[in-house]
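Continuing the batch. This is chain 6 of the set; chains 1 through 5 are on the previous pages. Same settings as before, nothing changed between runs. Recording input and output for traceability.
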Amino acid sequence: MDQSISFLHVKELLYLLGIILSAGMLSGYIAKILKLPDVVFLLFAGIILGVNGLNLIDVKVNSSLNQLILIFGSCYILFDGGASVRIHVIKKVWPTLLLISTLGVLITTFIAGIAAQFFIGLPFIAALLLGSVIASTDPATLIPVFKQTKVPAKIAQLVISESAFNDAMAAILAMTLFSMAINESALNLSLSFMGLLQQSVVGIIAGGILGYISVSIISHDKYGFLREYAPLVTLMTVASAFLAADNFHASGFMAVFIFGIVLGNKDLFGFKTNNKEQEKLDDFILTTSLIMRIFIFILLGSQVDFSLLNKYFWPALGVVLVFMFIARPMTVFLCALPNRKANWKLKELILMCWTRETGVIPGALASMLVGLNAPHADIIAAVTFMAIIITITVQPLTTRWLVKKLKF
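Output for chain 6:
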Protein backbone atom coordinates (compact mmCIF):
# COMPACT_ATOMS: atom_id res chain seq x y z
CA MET A 1 0.00 0.00 0.00
CA ASP A 2 1.40 3.35 -1.06
CA GLN A 3 2.15 5.80 1.69
CA SER A 4 0.91 9.36 1.33
CA ILE A 5 3.39 12.19 0.95
CA SER A 6 2.28 13.72 4.26
CA PHE A 7 2.89 10.43 6.08
CA LEU A 8 6.38 10.20 4.58
CA HIS A 9 7.09 13.75 5.74
CA VAL A 10 5.97 12.84 9.26
CA LYS A 11 8.32 9.84 9.24
CA GLU A 12 11.18 12.04 8.05
CA LEU A 13 10.45 14.55 10.82
CA LEU A 14 10.34 11.84 13.50
CA TYR A 15 13.60 10.45 12.15
CA LEU A 16 15.17 13.91 12.31
CA LEU A 17 13.97 14.48 15.89
CA GLY A 18 15.35 11.11 16.94
CA ILE A 19 18.76 11.79 15.37
CA ILE A 20 19.07 15.25 16.94
CA LEU A 21 17.96 14.20 20.42
CA SER A 22 20.21 11.13 20.38
CA ALA A 23 23.18 13.21 19.28
CA GLY A 24 22.32 15.78 21.94
CA MET A 25 22.25 13.21 24.74
CA LEU A 26 25.58 11.70 23.62
CA SER A 27 27.16 15.16 23.35
CA GLY A 28 25.92 16.06 26.83
CA TYR A 29 27.31 12.84 28.27
CA ILE A 30 30.75 13.43 26.73
CA ALA A 31 30.73 17.06 27.93
CA LYS A 32 29.90 15.91 31.47
CA ILE A 33 32.79 13.42 31.48
CA LEU A 34 35.26 16.02 30.19
CA LYS A 35 33.78 18.74 32.42
CA LEU A 36 33.30 21.13 29.50
CA PRO A 37 30.24 23.09 28.29
CA ASP A 38 28.05 20.92 26.08
CA VAL A 39 27.62 23.63 23.43
CA VAL A 40 30.90 22.88 21.63
CA PHE A 41 30.07 19.16 21.42
CA LEU A 42 26.59 19.96 20.11
CA LEU A 43 28.14 22.10 17.38
CA PHE A 44 30.57 19.38 16.36
CA ALA A 45 27.75 16.82 16.41
CA GLY A 46 25.83 19.05 13.99
CA ILE A 47 28.86 19.32 11.71
CA ILE A 48 29.35 15.54 11.69
CA LEU A 49 25.68 14.79 11.04
CA GLY A 50 25.08 17.68 8.62
CA VAL A 51 25.54 18.11 4.90
CA ASN A 52 29.29 18.50 5.35
CA GLY A 53 29.52 15.15 7.12
CA LEU A 54 27.22 12.12 7.16
CA ASN A 55 24.33 14.10 5.62
CA LEU A 56 21.84 12.75 8.16
CA ILE A 57 20.52 16.25 8.96
CA ASP A 58 19.53 18.58 6.15
CA VAL A 59 17.27 21.33 7.47
CA LYS A 60 17.30 24.39 5.23
CA VAL A 61 18.14 27.67 6.91
CA ASN A 62 15.09 29.43 5.49
CA SER A 63 12.65 26.58 6.25
CA SER A 64 9.68 27.08 8.57
CA LEU A 65 10.94 24.30 10.85
CA ASN A 66 14.33 25.95 11.26
CA GLN A 67 12.84 29.37 11.99
CA LEU A 68 10.34 27.90 14.48
CA ILE A 69 13.11 26.16 16.41
CA LEU A 70 15.36 29.22 16.40
CA ILE A 71 12.72 31.77 17.41
CA PHE A 72 10.89 29.72 20.04
CA GLY A 73 14.13 28.13 21.26
CA SER A 74 15.78 31.53 21.71
CA CYS A 75 12.68 32.84 23.49
CA TYR A 76 12.59 29.94 25.92
CA ILE A 77 16.31 30.17 26.68
CA LEU A 78 15.92 33.91 27.34
CA PHE A 79 12.96 33.15 29.59
CA ASP A 80 15.09 30.61 31.46
CA GLY A 81 17.85 33.19 31.80
CA GLY A 82 15.40 35.70 33.26
CA ALA A 83 14.04 33.09 35.68
CA SER A 84 17.57 32.50 37.00
CA VAL A 85 18.07 36.18 37.90
CA ARG A 86 17.56 36.97 41.59
CA ILE A 87 16.71 40.60 42.27
CA HIS A 88 18.05 40.51 45.84
CA VAL A 89 21.43 39.36 44.50
CA ILE A 90 21.85 41.92 41.73
CA LYS A 91 20.99 44.77 44.10
CA LYS A 92 24.60 44.64 45.30
CA VAL A 93 26.12 45.33 41.89
CA TRP A 94 23.20 46.82 39.98
CA PRO A 95 24.99 49.98 38.67
CA THR A 96 27.72 47.88 37.04
CA LEU A 97 25.17 45.35 35.83
CA LEU A 98 22.97 48.05 34.29
CA LEU A 99 25.89 49.66 32.47
CA ILE A 100 27.55 46.46 31.24
CA SER A 101 24.24 45.01 30.01
CA THR A 102 23.24 48.12 28.05
CA LEU A 103 26.12 50.49 27.34
CA GLY A 104 28.47 47.50 27.38
CA VAL A 105 26.57 45.83 24.52
CA LEU A 106 26.82 49.05 22.50
CA ILE A 107 30.57 49.35 23.18
CA THR A 108 31.19 45.73 22.20
CA THR A 109 29.03 46.11 19.09
CA PHE A 110 30.86 49.25 17.97
CA ILE A 111 34.40 47.90 18.49
CA ALA A 112 33.61 44.52 16.92
CA GLY A 113 31.88 46.34 14.07
CA ILE A 114 34.92 48.53 13.40
CA ALA A 115 37.06 45.36 13.39
CA ALA A 116 34.69 43.68 10.93
CA GLN A 117 34.80 46.70 8.66
CA PHE A 118 38.62 46.78 8.81
CA PHE A 119 39.36 43.05 8.43
CA ILE A 120 36.47 41.95 6.20
CA GLY A 121 35.45 45.15 4.46
CA LEU A 122 31.77 44.98 5.40
CA PRO A 123 29.57 48.07 5.02
CA PHE A 124 29.27 49.94 8.32
CA ILE A 125 25.68 48.90 9.16
CA ALA A 126 26.38 45.26 8.29
CA ALA A 127 29.57 45.40 10.36
CA LEU A 128 27.62 46.77 13.33
CA LEU A 129 25.01 44.04 12.78
CA LEU A 130 27.77 41.44 13.07
CA GLY A 131 29.03 43.14 16.23
CA SER A 132 25.56 43.10 17.79
CA VAL A 133 25.08 39.40 17.02
CA ILE A 134 28.21 38.36 18.93
CA ALA A 135 27.86 40.99 21.68
CA SER A 136 25.91 38.90 24.19
CA THR A 137 27.29 36.27 26.54
CA ASP A 138 25.96 32.80 27.28
CA PRO A 139 24.60 31.80 30.73
CA ALA A 140 24.28 28.18 29.59
CA THR A 141 28.06 28.06 29.12
CA LEU A 142 29.09 30.24 32.06
CA ILE A 143 27.14 28.50 34.81
CA PRO A 144 28.89 25.11 34.41
CA VAL A 145 32.28 26.87 34.33
CA PHE A 146 31.56 28.70 37.59
CA LYS A 147 30.37 25.48 39.21
CA GLN A 148 33.64 23.75 38.31
CA THR A 149 35.91 26.68 39.23
CA LYS A 150 36.11 28.63 42.49
CA VAL A 151 35.20 32.00 41.02
CA PRO A 152 34.38 34.66 43.66
CA ALA A 153 30.62 34.93 44.20
CA LYS A 154 30.63 38.67 43.51
CA ILE A 155 31.99 38.09 40.00
CA ALA A 156 29.95 34.98 39.32
CA GLN A 157 26.67 36.69 40.23
CA LEU A 158 27.44 39.75 38.11
CA VAL A 159 28.58 37.86 35.01
CA ILE A 160 25.72 35.36 35.12
CA SER A 161 23.20 38.19 35.57
CA GLU A 162 24.90 40.13 32.78
CA SER A 163 24.67 37.14 30.47
CA ALA A 164 20.93 36.94 31.10
CA PHE A 165 20.28 40.68 30.66
CA ASN A 166 22.52 41.36 27.66
CA ASP A 167 20.95 38.57 25.58
CA ALA A 168 17.75 40.60 25.35
CA MET A 169 19.62 43.86 24.72
CA ALA A 170 21.77 42.33 21.97
CA ALA A 171 18.73 40.71 20.34
CA ILE A 172 16.89 44.05 20.26
CA LEU A 173 19.94 45.83 18.85
CA ALA A 174 20.48 43.15 16.22
CA MET A 175 16.87 43.32 15.02
CA THR A 176 17.05 47.14 14.89
CA LEU A 177 20.24 47.05 12.82
CA PHE A 178 18.79 44.30 10.63
CA SER A 179 15.82 46.54 9.83
CA MET A 180 18.21 49.36 8.90
CA ALA A 181 20.39 47.07 6.80
CA ILE A 182 17.48 45.55 4.88
CA ASN A 183 16.04 49.01 4.17
CA GLU A 184 19.49 50.42 3.36
CA SER A 185 18.88 53.38 5.66
CA ALA A 186 21.65 55.50 7.10
CA LEU A 187 22.60 55.24 10.75
CA ASN A 188 20.70 57.82 12.79
CA LEU A 189 21.82 57.67 16.41
CA SER A 190 18.86 59.55 17.89
CA LEU A 191 16.27 57.53 15.97
CA SER A 192 18.12 54.29 16.69
CA PHE A 193 18.25 55.08 20.41
CA MET A 194 14.55 55.97 20.51
CA GLY A 195 13.73 52.79 18.61
CA LEU A 196 15.72 50.69 21.08
CA LEU A 197 14.08 52.48 24.01
CA GLN A 198 10.57 52.01 22.62
CA GLN A 199 11.11 48.32 21.88
CA SER A 200 12.58 47.75 25.33
CA VAL A 201 9.90 49.64 27.28
CA VAL A 202 6.95 48.08 25.46
CA GLY A 203 8.62 44.66 25.74
CA ILE A 204 9.08 45.18 29.49
CA ILE A 205 5.43 46.20 29.91
CA ALA A 206 4.12 43.24 27.86
CA GLY A 207 6.37 40.77 29.68
CA GLY A 208 5.50 42.23 33.06
CA ILE A 209 1.73 42.13 32.54
CA LEU A 210 1.61 38.65 31.03
CA GLY A 211 4.15 37.43 33.55
CA TYR A 212 2.08 38.67 36.48
CA ILE A 213 -1.08 37.10 35.05
CA SER A 214 0.68 33.78 34.50
CA VAL A 215 2.21 33.74 37.97
CA SER A 216 -1.21 34.57 39.43
CA ILE A 217 -2.97 31.64 37.81
CA ILE A 218 -0.30 29.15 38.90
CA SER A 219 0.67 30.51 42.34
CA HIS A 220 -2.11 32.71 43.79
CA ASP A 221 -3.83 31.23 46.86
CA LYS A 222 -7.30 32.09 45.54
CA TYR A 223 -6.94 32.41 41.76
CA GLY A 224 -4.26 29.81 41.10
CA PHE A 225 -6.62 27.43 39.32
CA LEU A 226 -3.92 26.29 36.87
CA ARG A 227 -1.38 25.41 39.54
CA GLU A 228 -1.13 21.81 38.33
CA TYR A 229 -0.50 23.00 34.77
CA ALA A 230 2.31 25.44 35.58
CA PRO A 231 4.79 23.95 33.04
CA LEU A 232 2.23 24.32 30.24
CA VAL A 233 1.47 27.87 31.34
CA THR A 234 5.14 28.79 30.93
CA LEU A 235 5.13 27.46 27.36
CA MET A 236 1.93 29.33 26.54
CA THR A 237 3.15 32.58 28.10
CA VAL A 238 6.55 32.50 26.38
CA ALA A 239 4.80 32.27 23.02
CA SER A 240 2.12 34.82 24.00
CA ALA A 241 4.61 37.36 25.39
CA PHE A 242 6.75 37.19 22.26
CA LEU A 243 3.79 37.56 19.90
CA ALA A 244 2.10 40.28 21.96
CA ALA A 245 5.22 42.43 22.03
CA ASP A 246 5.96 41.74 18.37
CA ASN A 247 2.45 42.82 17.36
CA PHE A 248 3.16 46.19 18.99
CA HIS A 249 6.47 46.40 17.07
CA ALA A 250 8.37 45.90 20.31
CA SER A 251 10.92 43.33 21.44
CA GLY A 252 9.45 39.90 22.01
CA PHE A 253 12.84 38.86 23.35
CA MET A 254 12.66 41.46 26.11
CA ALA A 255 9.09 40.43 26.91
CA VAL A 256 9.94 36.76 27.49
CA PHE A 257 13.02 37.75 29.51
CA ILE A 258 10.93 39.96 31.82
CA PHE A 259 8.37 37.17 32.17
CA GLY A 260 11.22 34.97 33.37
CA ILE A 261 12.28 37.55 35.95
CA VAL A 262 8.71 37.85 37.27
CA LEU A 263 8.39 34.07 37.57
CA GLY A 264 11.82 33.65 39.14
CA ASN A 265 11.11 36.33 41.75
CA LYS A 266 7.42 35.65 42.34
CA ASP A 267 7.95 35.64 46.11
CA LEU A 268 8.59 39.39 45.92
CA PHE A 269 5.06 39.80 44.51
CA GLY A 270 3.53 37.82 47.37
CA PHE A 271 3.18 34.51 45.54
CA LYS A 272 4.31 31.19 46.93
CA THR A 273 4.63 27.69 45.52
CA ASN A 274 5.09 24.54 47.57
CA ASN A 275 8.42 22.76 47.20
CA LYS A 276 7.05 19.80 45.24
CA GLU A 277 5.33 21.98 42.64
CA GLN A 278 8.37 24.27 42.40
CA GLU A 279 10.71 21.32 41.80
CA LYS A 280 8.36 20.03 39.10
CA LEU A 281 8.36 23.42 37.38
CA ASP A 282 12.13 23.88 37.70
CA ASP A 283 12.76 20.42 36.23
CA PHE A 284 10.46 21.17 33.30
CA ILE A 285 12.12 24.51 32.54
CA LEU A 286 15.60 22.97 32.82
CA THR A 287 14.71 20.07 30.52
CA THR A 288 12.90 22.22 27.96
CA SER A 289 15.76 24.72 27.86
CA LEU A 290 18.21 21.85 27.34
CA ILE A 291 16.14 20.49 24.44
CA MET A 292 16.01 23.95 22.84
CA ARG A 293 19.79 24.30 23.21
CA ILE A 294 20.34 20.89 21.63
CA PHE A 295 18.21 21.70 18.60
CA ILE A 296 19.66 25.19 18.07
CA PHE A 297 23.31 24.19 18.19
CA ILE A 298 23.06 20.91 16.30
CA LEU A 299 21.14 22.67 13.52
CA LEU A 300 23.64 25.53 13.56
CA GLY A 301 26.52 23.08 13.19
CA SER A 302 24.77 21.19 10.41
CA GLN A 303 24.35 24.41 8.41
CA VAL A 304 27.93 25.71 8.63
CA ASP A 305 29.29 26.77 5.24
CA PHE A 306 32.90 25.61 5.42
CA SER A 307 33.82 27.09 2.07
CA LEU A 308 32.81 30.52 3.34
CA LEU A 309 34.48 29.90 6.72
CA ASN A 310 37.67 28.92 4.94
CA LYS A 311 37.45 31.97 2.67
CA TYR A 312 37.14 34.39 5.59
CA PHE A 313 39.16 32.41 8.15
CA TRP A 314 41.92 34.93 8.84
CA PRO A 315 39.73 38.07 8.69
CA ALA A 316 37.19 36.37 10.94
CA LEU A 317 39.94 35.33 13.34
CA GLY A 318 41.09 38.95 13.45
CA VAL A 319 37.58 40.11 14.36
CA VAL A 320 37.27 37.51 17.11
CA LEU A 321 40.68 38.39 18.61
CA VAL A 322 39.76 42.09 18.69
CA PHE A 323 36.44 41.09 20.17
CA MET A 324 38.11 39.09 22.96
CA PHE A 325 41.18 41.19 23.78
CA ILE A 326 40.03 44.76 23.05
CA ALA A 327 36.22 44.98 23.02
CA ARG A 328 35.60 42.95 26.18
CA PRO A 329 38.27 44.62 28.35
CA MET A 330 37.15 48.10 27.28
CA THR A 331 33.53 47.15 28.01
CA VAL A 332 34.37 45.84 31.49
CA PHE A 333 36.60 48.72 32.56
CA LEU A 334 34.39 51.49 31.16
CA CYS A 335 31.25 50.02 32.74
CA ALA A 336 32.66 48.82 36.09
CA LEU A 337 35.00 51.63 37.15
CA PRO A 338 32.25 54.30 37.49
CA ASN A 339 30.63 52.16 40.22
CA ARG A 340 32.87 53.20 43.11
CA LYS A 341 30.67 51.56 45.75
CA ALA A 342 31.35 48.12 44.27
CA ASN A 343 35.05 48.63 45.03
CA TRP A 344 36.20 46.53 42.10
CA LYS A 345 39.77 45.27 42.29
CA LEU A 346 42.02 44.98 39.23
CA LYS A 347 42.17 41.18 39.41
CA GLU A 348 38.37 41.01 39.60
CA LEU A 349 38.05 43.13 36.46
CA ILE A 350 40.63 40.98 34.65
CA LEU A 351 38.69 37.83 35.48
CA MET A 352 35.46 39.47 34.29
CA CYS A 353 37.18 40.27 31.01
CA TRP A 354 37.96 36.61 30.44
CA THR A 355 34.65 35.03 31.50
CA ARG A 356 32.38 35.95 28.60
CA GLU A 357 31.65 32.97 26.37
CA THR A 358 29.60 33.37 23.19
CA GLY A 359 26.83 30.84 22.82
CA VAL A 360 23.15 30.18 22.27
CA ILE A 361 21.62 33.56 21.44
CA PRO A 362 24.39 34.70 19.04
CA GLY A 363 24.18 31.35 17.25
CA ALA A 364 20.41 31.60 16.98
CA LEU A 365 20.51 35.23 15.82
CA ALA A 366 23.09 34.41 13.14
CA SER A 367 20.95 31.58 11.78
CA MET A 368 17.85 33.78 11.89
CA LEU A 369 19.60 36.45 9.82
CA VAL A 370 20.59 33.83 7.24
CA GLY A 371 17.00 32.62 7.09
CA LEU A 372 15.77 36.21 6.70
CA ASN A 373 18.27 36.88 3.87
CA ALA A 374 19.92 39.73 5.75
CA PRO A 375 22.74 41.50 3.87
CA HIS A 376 26.05 39.64 4.34
CA ALA A 377 24.31 37.16 6.66
CA ASP A 378 26.55 34.32 5.48
CA ILE A 379 29.67 36.19 6.58
CA ILE A 380 28.03 37.13 9.88
CA ALA A 381 27.21 33.45 10.47
CA ALA A 382 30.79 32.40 9.70
CA VAL A 383 32.30 34.91 12.13
CA THR A 384 29.70 34.04 14.79
CA PHE A 385 30.52 30.36 14.46
CA MET A 386 34.22 31.08 14.91
CA ALA A 387 33.53 33.30 17.94
CA ILE A 388 31.47 30.52 19.52
CA ILE A 389 34.09 27.83 18.90
CA ILE A 390 37.02 29.91 20.17
CA THR A 391 35.36 31.39 23.25
CA ILE A 392 33.69 28.22 24.49
CA THR A 393 36.81 26.11 24.08
CA VAL A 394 39.69 28.44 24.99
CA GLN A 395 38.14 30.46 27.81
CA PRO A 396 36.53 27.70 29.93
CA LEU A 397 39.72 25.62 29.70
CA THR A 398 41.87 28.49 30.97
CA THR A 399 39.55 30.05 33.58
CA ARG A 400 40.75 27.80 36.40
CA TRP A 401 44.39 28.57 35.54
CA LEU A 402 43.64 32.31 35.51
CA VAL A 403 41.89 32.13 38.89
CA LYS A 404 44.99 30.52 40.38
CA LYS A 405 47.31 33.06 38.74
CA LEU A 406 45.27 35.96 40.08
CA LYS A 407 45.40 34.34 43.56
CA PHE A 408 41.74 34.55 44.52
